[in-house]
Specification:
heterodimer, A: mainly beta, 6-stranded mixed sheet, globular, B: mainly beta
Chain lengths: 111, 115
């Protein structure tokens, strides 16, 4: 099983700022891509799926570059409630099941 | 709608003891998964099941066993607890295989401490 790599942070960002996270994945057979959010001592919850064409959900924009095996997440107009750990997640493909998780990027929004 | 439920929420075990972590989902999902998350680390897949009666190993299956006698339940068994099994365990379910693009829904987790 291949890896998903993320900068662990923490990213300390003032409220209202724009912040971007990146992740890289090593398995070129990966089929599906996601960003999950995990609050302290809670379960991961899906933030958004990531498509090659790029997709946007309110203040959140995700991009996938299959050629570079690179995924990004952009958060605009950050809110205090955005403080969390953001997990880059990839489905491995190649017949295996389950998801491969990055270690997460810790984001702290400061008032 | 309860989604995915896990019991217990927290447990302390002594080395060598055994226990079963319970997981139940009420969404009629065929696919179920067990992950563990160590501090500062990503989730790692222990076992998964693609339907009742079918289970398969994930990335870190050693020291664990599973069964899937019904669609709803997917218990995880620790036979001889070791300190290395101290972790947070998450159960998840999904309607389709991971590669389909469908998300997985996670339970609240079980925190296990082995002393």
């Amino acid at each position: 099983r291949k890896e998903v790599e993320q900068d662990p942070g923490p990213f300390n960002v003032p409220e209202g700022a724009t912040v971007a996270f990146n992740c890289t994945y090593s398995n070129s057979a990966s089929q599906s891509f996601f960003w999950y959010r995990q609050d302290c001592r809670k379960e991961p919850k899906l933030l958004m799926s990531v498509y090659s064409s790029g997709n946007e959900d309110g203040r959140f924009t995700a991009q996938l570059n299959r050629a570079s095996q690179y995924i990004s997440l952009l958060i605009r107009d950050s809110k205090l409630s955005d403080s969390a750990t953001y997990l880059c997640v990839v489905s491995p493909g190649g017949g295996a099941d389950g998801l491969t998780f990055g270690k997460g990027t810790h984001l702290i929004i400061q008032p | 709608n309860a989604g995915v439920t896990q019991t217990p929420k927290f447990r302390i075990l002594k080395i060598g003891q055994s226990m079963t972590l319970q997981c139940t989902q009420d969404m009629n999902h065929n696919y179920m998964y067990w992950y563990r998350q160590d501090p500062g680390m990503g989730l790692k897949l222990i076992y998964y099941s693609v339907g009742a009666g079918i289970t398969d190993k994930g990335e870190v299956p050693n020291g664990y066993n599973v069964s899937r006698s019904t669609t709803e339940d997917f218990p995880l068994r620790l036979e001889l607890a070791a300190p290395s099994q101290t972790s947070v365990y998450f159960c998840a379910s999904g309607p389709w295989a991971s590669g389909s693009g469908e998300t997985q829904y996670f339970g609240p987790g079980t925190r296990l401490l082995v002393l």
